[in-house]
């Protein structure tokens, strides 16, 4: 089978991070068993979903299964 | 942005392989055309069965693909794929890439790709037609899902809830079944590992 979806036409960019930002990225990469590039690509996808919903007038909440409490997350 | 790739399906009647096209991030028109063709076929098959007094197996689900396409609205976390032969859609699949986490103990909590919806054209479904037109749509789609999982950094980890009639397909591909999921209408829950993906993609 010759299909290679999602693996073509990638662009390269240089990213400058502070030590603190890099430390967070290192930690997420280790915790999630993903490369740092994969973490940042996922962050972009999630950011897009959040941005799309907020632009549509929706709000973002964190919920708790136990006490059903919901806290609105304010995205600046 | 749409991207296309060459794949191969098996023409059951001629016994030969045929060239097909896998399209990533299909257009709304692509989905609508598929739905119209599939709906027309199902209606004709139903009428023919009634006319001849033959049994007719309704598909387990007739999903509204156009609505799903609209809801995905170009978001990167949702990828809709189509596979076609000479422009005729043979299958559709929707992947959700950032919403779920693994349940198997050895990969608990890690990210994976959810095969949210996967359907073959009704003329490729043995339960409806008796004889398939093309074989291999499901395998092409699962191959695609595994490749996407690897590309996104999930190392081939997938999850899905199988319709009753598709369980033997996933079992046949060695996907690990973790039993019925009460949170998903009792459908059986399947999850794969990087080791499975390496073997499957070989």
List the helices and strands and how they pair.
The complex is a heterodimer of chains A (76) and B (202).
Chain A: H1 19-32, H2 36-55, E1 60-63, E2 70-73
Antiparallel strand pairs in A: 1-2
Helix pairs in contact in A: 1-2
Chain B: E1 3-11, E2 16-24, H1 28-51, H2 65-72, E3 78-85, E4 88-96, E5 113-120, H3 126-129, E6 134-135, H4 137-151, E7 158-162, H5 167-172, E8 176-180, E9 188-191, H6 194-201
Helix pairs in contact in B: 1-2
Tally the helices of chain B.
Answer: 6
Proportion in β-strands of chain B: 25-35%
Percentage of residues assigned to helices of chain B: 25-40%
Q: Helix and strand string of chain A, N-terminal first? A: HHEE
Number of strands of chain A: 2
**Overall strand count of chain B:** 9
Describe the global form of chain A: extended
Determine Rg of chain A (CA atoms, Å).
17 Å
Beta fraction of the residues of chain A?
5-15%
The radius of gyration over CA of chain B amounts to: 17 Å
Report, as a whole number of angstroms, the end-to-end distance of chain A: 45 Å
Strand pairing plus helix content of chain A: what structural class?
mainly alpha
Detailed description of the structure:
The complex is a heterodimer of chains A (76) and B (202). Chain A is mainly alpha-helical. In chain A, 45% of the residues lie in helices and 11% in strands. In chain A, strand 1 (60-63) and strand 2 form a beta hairpin. The longest helix of chain A is centred in the middle third of the chain and has 20 residues, at 36-55. The N and C termini of chain A lie far apart (45 Å). Chain B has helices at residues 28-51, 65-72, 126-129, 137-151, 167-172, 194-201, and strands spanning 3-11, 16-24, 78-85, 88-96, 113-120, 134-135, 158-162, 176-180, 188-191. In chain B, a hairpin with a 2-residue loop joins strand 3 (78-85) and strand 4 (88-96). In chain B, helix 1 (28-51) packs antiparallel against helix 2 (65-72). The mean pLDDT of chain B is 93. The interface between A and B is medium-sized, with 24 and 29 residues.
């Amino acid at each position: 089978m010759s299909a290679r979806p999602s693996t073509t036409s990638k662009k390269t960019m240089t990213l400058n991070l502070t030590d603190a930002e890099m430390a967070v990225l290192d930690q997420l990469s280790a915790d999630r068993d993903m490369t740092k590039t994969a973490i940042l690509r996922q962050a972009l996808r999630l950011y897009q979903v959040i941005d799309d919903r907020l632009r549509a007038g929706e709000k973002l909440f964190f919920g708790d299964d136990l006490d059903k409490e919901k806290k609105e997350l304010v995205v600046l | 942005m749409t991207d296309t790739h060459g794949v191969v399906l098996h023409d059951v009647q001629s016994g030969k392989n045929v060239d097909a096209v896998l399209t990533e991030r299909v257009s709304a028109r692509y989905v609508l055309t598929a739905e119209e063709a599939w709906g027309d076929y199902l209606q004709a098959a139903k009428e023919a069965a009634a006319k001849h007094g033959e049994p007719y197996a309704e598909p387990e689900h007739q999903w509204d693909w156009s609505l799903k396409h609209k809801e995905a609205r170009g978001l990167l976390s949702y990828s809709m794929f189509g596979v076609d032969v000479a422009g005729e859609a043979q299958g559709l699949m929707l992947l959700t890439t950032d919403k779920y986490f693994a349940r198997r103990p050895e990969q608990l909590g890690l990210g994976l790709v959810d095969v949210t919806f996967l359907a073959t054209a009704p003329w490729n479904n043995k339960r409806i037609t008796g004889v398939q037109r093309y074989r291999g749509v499901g395998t092409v789609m699962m191959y695609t899902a595994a490749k996407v999982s690897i590309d996104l950094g999930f190392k081939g980890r997938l999850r899905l809830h199988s319709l009753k009639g598709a369980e033997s397909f996933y079992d046949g591909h060695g996907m690990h079944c973790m039993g019925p999921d009460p949170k998903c209408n009792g459908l059986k829950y399947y999850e794969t590992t990087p080791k499975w993906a390496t073997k499957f993609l070989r």
